[in-house]
Amino acid sequence: MATEESTKTPTSGKGSSAYLMSIVRTLSSSADFEQREQEKTRIEKAFRESDKRLGELVTTHYQDVTKILQGFGKMTKSINDSREKIRKIKEDLSSCKTLLHFKRDELRKLWRDGVEHKAVLSMLEQIEQIKEVPDKMDAYIAKKYYLHATDLIVQAVAKLEGPLAQVEALRDLRAELNGRKETLHEKLIEELNQQIYVRSVQTLSMQRGGSARLSRRDASVWGWTDSTTFNTPTTTRTESSDSNKGGVHLEVVEDLNRDPTENLAHFISILTESLFVLRKLPEAVEITKMRIEPELLSLVAKATQQVAESAGQQSDSLANQSEPRHLLDLLQLIFQQFRCVAATHQIVLKNVHRLTVTSMPLHAEVVYDMKDVWSNIQAVLPLFRFDASLHALSTNSYIEDTRQFDASDLGQQNLLTRMSKQQKICRPSAFNITAIYKPLKAFIHEIEDAMGMESPAGLQEFITDFVQNAFLGQVHQRVSQSIDAATKGFDALRNVIDDKVRRELGVPRPLLQSTVTVDESIGELQELMMALPDYADQFLTMVCNVLREYRDKCHSAYRDIVQHGADDRRVISAMWAKDEDISRSLPSWRTLQPSADGKELDGTVCSEQEMRALNSKEAVILITNLSTDETLIPQQEIITDVTQMRTVANVHESLEWFASRLQQMTDSLAEGSKAAGPDGLPADQLPTDAVPVSAPTLASLRSLVQDFRDLAEVCLLLLHLEVRVHCFYYLLPVAKQSNYAGPIDDLDPDSNVLKLNKDLSSMEEVLSQSLQPKKFKYIFETLGYLVASILISSVQFLKKINENGIKKMCRNILAIQQNLTNITLTRETDLDRARQFYELLYLSPDVSSMTDRFQDVLNGIAEKGPQFTGSDYAMLIHLYHRSHPGNPIPVQEARMQRLTEIMEKGQNETV
């Protein structure tokens, strides 16, 4: 039997071959005849089926088969024809080879002639191209395609000095192109400086793109390997691999369809690349370094003119104006321009460094770096005389010391002329430094950061030297002269500001001119502290010195007013004001003292009883010290010149205002020092008025502020006491020296009372103009109570009194009451009490009637309570009995005993 594999029908050519081989193996390996017959029968059957299937397919695809057979026939014929042609060509080539062998020398000659003609044709083409170079260069340069122009001229000159060197007809063209090459080099240097010093200051926002790294194969920074072929450059360079370094470098692309100057950084890379191609990069770098300072000076001159024009004036007129803001505008403009210049130099140096390192790393040297740029910037800024606000440059010394080149060769023909002119933009003054110090300091920090300096920059040393050795001395001299002029002379502390100045200051009462002058000087020093914060401690020390000097002069003036004679004795009020035990025990003074929260106490909050108690305490203190004996107050122990009291009042108002101003300054400095301290805010977040000062100096300032406040308080207390001492001075003689037992026609007020009224009116006139209302009220309020107390206590000094004397005393009281009412604008009811006290003496001379009368008085005291003290009643009884010596002594003793009993009983009931 046939195997299962042998029964399979083939489906492809490869399968048919395998199928046939399977049949052969089956027939060969079968030993049974029957099996072979069966296999044969099966194969014949399959053949018949295949033949039948093939016939059907041929019938179905007859046309396609016909076409295939026809195509195959044509192809066979074409192949046969091609074979015949090839055979014929081989025969012809063999014949040609035989013929050429006989013409070899003649053909060699023709070949050499062809090569020569081709070389000549190429040379002619190159000559034609070279002739077009000048026109192409002009076109490129006009549009500032400098890299195209550079490549064009370099390759043209290389050809003229290489393959075309022997062409004599090109000698003139060779000279012209060499000249153009040198001119292009100068043009590139000038264009580079134009970009650094003109274009950069106009392009404040620098475009950083476009300055990709680039390299040139087979080139060095100091030489150039010329190409052997010349083609018009496109300067569109692609990435190339450097086999020696294994790196990839990007070439500069100069697009002829775009403006090459639209990107400053990219344009500078084009210029440096062009100088590198021209083998002029080292020379260009050297010249660029040499031109840094003169170009900076030229920028300064232009900026000065620009500031003058923006101010709408000529620099000559600005020089006569004290406007340091113009100097600030100038420096800010210069700083901005210098920053742009430095940034552009940074771009130039990056390109130079890139070219030198990538081309010849072992011999790469850069003639200058950014430290040189910043050093030149600093050198230009000390050429400003800040004390005179002008550009103070000595042209000759400058050229001799720093420049060794011809300015005309670098396009700087007008530099010497500009440098020789000193342009002022404001009036010369050392104080101009105040307007520029902070921005100048910030610029110095920029320089130090850029240069990586650990020590101060040269410009910083210059500024420090100027401030310490020149400016601080001028400030001290100016302040000293101002204060000396204000405080010198006898009337220096008497002159007050006029109404206009007072309105400008917003003060209610006149201030001393000297105080305002000192305050202005302190204000100037405070402004200097804000303007020059690094020297705030020095200025604060000046402030303290000025305050000490003025404090001493104020104390000296105060002593001149209150001191009399050479024994250092002072008027009574001054001694009391100086005595803390007395001054602080006066209740009326306490009512004006600041409370714990800093607010002034309002005297109106006290009840009438409390105010009476305070007034009584003050009256007791004064009476105890001034009217306990028969002696009178000497005239030299009071201030008799009312103008001196005006001066004291002016000193009080001035120093109180001044102390308040100084306190504000102290608080501001304390807050600023705290904010700028080690644990305070960072420098960039500090407020503008944050000025750090040392703690000891600030403590000295606080102490001086308190000194001025104390002196102001002493002056006010002095006036308060002086007015009261004047009352004692005039009223004590009223009782001790006047006669109150005289005839009936002696009823006019006592002369001392009239003098007191006149004195009080004079003091009221000057003090009302010099003191604020609340302080004027403090001076004269409760004065009626004191006068009443003085008159009541003076009963003890009266030897005798009759009815006429009582009327005279009442007239004294009425005269004083009317005068005080005119001064305080309130009825002085306390003087009614004094009058009522003296009216108790209206008693009948008859003993029996007198007894009844005193009995009524004592009964009234017992029923209604005492209106006066027991000692007052006792003095009244003694006075009456002195005035009527005929009264028996037992009667007086009985009245005193009855008075004592009534007063003791009243005290017990009160308790």
Q: Secondary-structure blueprint of this entry?
A:
Blueprint: H1 13-29, H2 33-60, H3 62-102, H4 104-131, H5 133-142, H6 146-161, H7 171-202, E1 240-241, E2 248-249, H8 264-277, H9 281-290, H10 292-310, H11 315-318, H12 324-359, H13 370-380, E3 384-385, E4 390-391, H14 395-402, H15 415-420, H16 433-451, H17 458-487, H18 499-505, H19 513-531, H20 536-562, E5 563-564, E6 569-570, H21 572-578, H22 580-583, H23 587-590, H24 608-626, H25 642-675, H26 695-736, H27 751-770, H28 773-780, H29 783-793, H30 803-824, H31 829-839, H32 847-864, H33 870-883, H34 889-910
Antiparallel strand pairs: 1-2, 3-4, 5-6
Helix pairs in contact: 5-6, 6-7, 6-8, 7-8, 7-12, 8-12, 10-12, 10-13, 12-13, 12-16, 17-19, 17-20, 19-20, 19-25, 20-26, 21-26, 24-29, 25-26, 25-27, 26-27, 26-28, 26-29, 27-30, 29-30, 29-31, 30-31, 32-34, 33-34
Task: Please explain how this structure is put together.
This is Exocyst complex component Sec8. Keywords: Exocytosis, Protein transport, Transport. Residues 268-379 form the Exocyst complex component Sec8 middle helical bundle domain. Pfam families: Sec8_C (PF20652), Sec8_N (PF04048). Belongs to the SEC8 family. The chain has 911 residues and is mainly α. The protein is 68% helix and 1% strand. The chain has helices spanning 13-29, 33-60, 62-102, 104-131, 133-142, 146-161, 171-202, 264-277, 281-290, 292-310, 315-318, 324-359, 370-380, 395-402, 415-420, 433-451, 458-487, 499-505, 513-531, 536-562, 572-578, 580-583, 587-590, 608-626, 642-675, 695-736, 751-770, 773-780, 783-793, 803-824, 829-839, 847-864, 870-883, 889-910; strands spanning 240-241, 248-249, 384-385, 390-391, 563-564, 569-570. It has a two-stranded antiparallel ribbon with strand order 1-2. Strands 3-4 form a two-stranded antiparallel ribbon. A hairpin with a 4-residue loop joins strand 3 (384-385) and strand 4. Helix 7 packs across helix 12 (324-359), helix 24 packs across helix 29 and helix 29 (783-793) runs parallel beside helix 31. The longest helix has 42 residues, at 695-736. The protein is elongated, with a radius of gyration of 60 Å.
